[in-house]
What we know:
The chain is an alpha/beta fold.
Amino acid sequence: MVKLLILDVDGILTDGTKFYNKDHEVLGKRYLCKDFTAIKRFIAAGVNVILLSGDIFNKTMGEKRNLDFYCSRGTDLSLDKSRFVELFESKYGIKQEEMAFVGDDYFDLSMFKKLKYTFSPLDAPMIIKQNSHKVINCLGGQGVVVRLYDYFIESGWITDATEEEVAELDKKEATSSEMA
Length: 180
């Protein structure tokens, strides 16, 4: 069924809040660690997970978590994320029908119109929720990926990963060694 899970970052892994300095440079964002564990659970269950964001700020986080990162903001500054679908088919050897996307904002609408399996949090705009395969019963940044994983299990789309598999993936992340 779903072999590739494509996650938007801001509004999914974060609540969309950015902390700025006086020069309006992004200083940081707030993530929920449980979502990172859920990502590892997805991977251990056989679903590849990647990040597709309009903000290059998220690239380092993806790299430290061993996640492929794609910045959707093109050289023309467009944000059309659906232009990546063919690249993902080719790179990951899958079909469009085997992709799922999680997004929350108007700039994600192209993916919601292109893919069948799309998910959004409760606080997404109505146009996103209307185009979602399923609205996740959670606000952005408050466990969207955790609840999505549970939905995949309950729907029989994946078999639950083992604790050992998830722990091995965790050991391979740069963030884990930085915490020691």
